[in-house]
Design goal:
Blueprint lengths: L2 E5 L2 E3 L5 E8 L7 E7 L6 E6 L6 E3 L7 E6 L4 E6 L8 E8 L9 E2 L3 E5 L2
Parallel strand pairs: 2-11
Antiparallel strand pairs: 1-3, 3-8, 4-5, 4-9, 5-6, 7-8, 9-10, 9-11
Length: 120
């Protein structure tokens, strides 16, 4: 079955950086766009970024454009999120997600998530 497992979260001071990783299994990884999504307690999911099947193109939410970079390694069935210039508003549970079609913000599976906390 489809499995997505995130890692790399943790605590970081404002202005710092983190790189999240997501290991995928159970499906033909290179056939799918992949995305990152985050959610805060009591809030709905916020789509952050999507990357196309071979990484040639990506799209970003306005809230993270210029600070976050999505990438993938199809040989490793992995997708990454490099996060720079983090601020307290980036504190959330971060998920990677599989995008079944060409609509960048729509996903059908997501992992359990990895927590990112930005504080001083």
């Amino acid at each position: 079955q489809v499995q997505l497992v995130e890692s790399g979260g943790g605590w970081v001071q404002p202005g710092g950086s983190l790189t999240l990783s997501c290991q995928a299994s159970g499906f033909a990884f290179s056939d799918y766009y992949m995305a990152w999504v985050r959610q805060v307690p009591g809030g709905g999911p916020e789509w952050l970024a999507t990357i196309t099947t071979f990484g040639a193109n990506s799209r970003y939410a306005d809230s993270v454009r210029g600070r976050f970079t999505i990438s993938r390694d199809n040989d490793k069935n992995a997708v990454y999120l490099q996060m720079n210039l983090l601020n307290t508003e980036d504190t959330a549970l971060y998920f990677c997600a599989r995008v079944p079609g060409v609509r960048a913000e729509e996903y059908d599976f997501r992992g359990p998530g990895t927590q990112v906390t930005v504080s001083s």
